[in-house]
Amino acid sequence: MFRRMILAPAAVLAVALSAALLPSGPLMAQDAPLRIEITDGVIEPMSIAIPAFHGDAEIAARVRQVVADDLTGTGLFREIPAEAHPARAASFAEAVSYDDWRAVNAQGLVSAEVRQMGENISVRFRLFDVISGQPQGDGMQFDARASDWRRAAHKIADQIYARLTGEQPYFDSRVAFVQETGPKNARIKRIGVMDYDGANILWMTDSSSLVLAPKFSRDGRRLLFTSYDSGFPQIQIMDVATVSARPLTTEQNAMAFAPTFSPDGRWVAYSREQGGNTDIWLMDVSTGAQRALTNSPAIDTSPGFSPDGQRIVFESDRSGTPQLYIMGLNGGEPTRISFGEGRYGTPAWSPKGDLIAFTKQIGDRFHIGTMRTDGSSERMLTESFLDEGPTWAPNGRVVMFTRATPGGNGLPRLHSVDITGRNMRPMNLDFAASDPSWGPLMP
Amino acid sequence: MMNAATKPVLLAALLGLAACAQPAPPVAPPVVDPYASTGGGAVFQGDLAGGVLGAEATAQYFRGTIGDTVLFPADQTTLTPEARVILARQAAWLSRHAGFTAVVQGHAEETGTREYNLALGARRASAVQEYLVAQGVAPGRIRTLSFGKERPAATCSDEGCYAQNRRAVTVVTEAAPAPVAAIAAAPAAVGGVTGAGL
């Protein structure tokens, strides 16, 4: 059986056009026989074969490479090299010779065909469980503009990932970030948006003023960021599709920074500083009406919403050192959740709701860590001179963060790591960057 | 009592002696600091009259001679005695030069998260603002902002640089062109705290 899916005719910037899906394919087959669990125990990646895609050779090769890079980039899959493959099937329709693939120890097999028709491409793929000798899930067809060929490839990889891990996928997603150029004491920064793998970079601001920490809305259509455009730190809100921004905060004598959207996009929580004291405020995006959520002489910053929008996790030094707290939106005393050694900051609530990722400083070393929302099960995923600012992949299995190197020539780079702490890798970018914000899985 | 200004001279002399067996370089005459500390505060003891005035009423003079920067210990936002001496000079200068406004920029070292450091820098800037206001500078003449760790003064990654980066910098700007009458009256304001209203 085949399912057909049409990718949103992507205007270049279309992030979250909801009309896209016809019909929505199942994310995993019902009796998924082949499965890799993302747990601490997994050491050996699953071996999969992704032989050359059929159809129009040039575009087929490019799509295949992106699919392979997506899958192997997770650290969960090992690609069987082409030299070891048995003779290639004559066509996409030809029956699979499971024995031939078993002979090279393939556990999974991806077969696909890519056809280009003018400005459109059509991609069909199937996934096979070689061990049990049967298809895993339905075949699927994606129709897209040829210019969106990478998205089509990510969609295939997402299907494969979801079927083999049982998790929601994340490859067809984008990341907002800050590019950094120039010397360390006069850094030039601008905001960009890229595919999760570093491709298709689009610049959202020019370099004329200092900009910090963009944050995607959950639908991926808007960005919040801090800008020194007025000479003072204030928050701007940007429509991603039109790349048009407007100031959201304009109060004189009050700095505004660390903005973040509520999941429904209606509210912005942010840090408002006045007279040296920083509290967390909540603003109604459409009316500008706002109120204080904290009222303490401490530094309260880096707010992040729970996935249901009912609670906010934030950083406060009210106990003497920066620690993590959770509060409801309707007042009440915040509950401290971090109690370990060191200083905690930049909490980010997982989209799955189960974990909070954070930055932790112990002595002169920095870590990205996770804990459950009650503060239990704390674990460190990374360690370096300076790691900070984790952002969650839309499936809650991977975080991206900034790692800076020391010294006058030190530079920040984006890295990602999965929640087991394995598979730490730098993003494939040929420039320095910081402050990633991972957007949603695109429809 | 060792004067702050003579200390580096002596130190340089000592270093010169220690470095090799060459004759000591001629020691420069001691510099008399017109703002020499007298304990709790600082009292201006220099000459306000004559040609000094023209040069003094510049942002460059403020930066180079008054001192635009105060430093903070790690993770601290309270003013040190050294910082208070510099800020007393800044306040006195601002009082003499009512045509200037000030922006106090707070900074933090690179260890620490971006957002916490923005808030930390704001605390430092605010501490400076409060001190200047307590010394008589009109609150409306001073704004604050924080650069967090975005604009380090020194770029290495050790305490020697961090100590220079934990700072608040007072940047003075001559206010928008004043009416002619105000300019003509300006010299009369020097030395007094008559700049209120600007």
Automatic annotation (TrEMBL), chain A:
Segments forming domain TolB N-terminal: 34-134
Presence of the UniProt keyword Signal in the record: yes
Record keywords, A-Z: Cell cycle, Cell division, Periplasm, Signal
Subunit record text: The Tol-Pal system is composed of five core proteins: the inner membrane proteins TolA, TolQ and TolR, the periplasmic protein TolB and the outer membrane protein Pal. They form a network linking the inner and outer membranes and the peptidoglycan layer.
Coiled coil: none
Stored InterPro entries: 6-blade_b-propeller_TolB-like (IPR011042), Tol-Pal_TolB (IPR014167), TolB_N (IPR007195), WD40 (IPR011659)
Family: Belongs to the TolB family.
Signal sequence extent: 1-29
Pfam families for this protein: PD40 (PF07676), TolB_N (PF04052)
Gene3D superfamilies (alphabetical): TolB, C-terminal domain (2.120.10.30), TolB, N-terminal domain (3.40.50.10070)
Role: Part of the Tol-Pal system, which plays a role in outer membrane invagination during cell division and is important for maintaining outer membrane integrity.
Localization terms from the record: Periplasm
Alphabetical GO biological process terms: cell division; protein import
A Gene Ontology cellular-component term: periplasmic space
Record protein name field: Tol-Pal system protein TolB
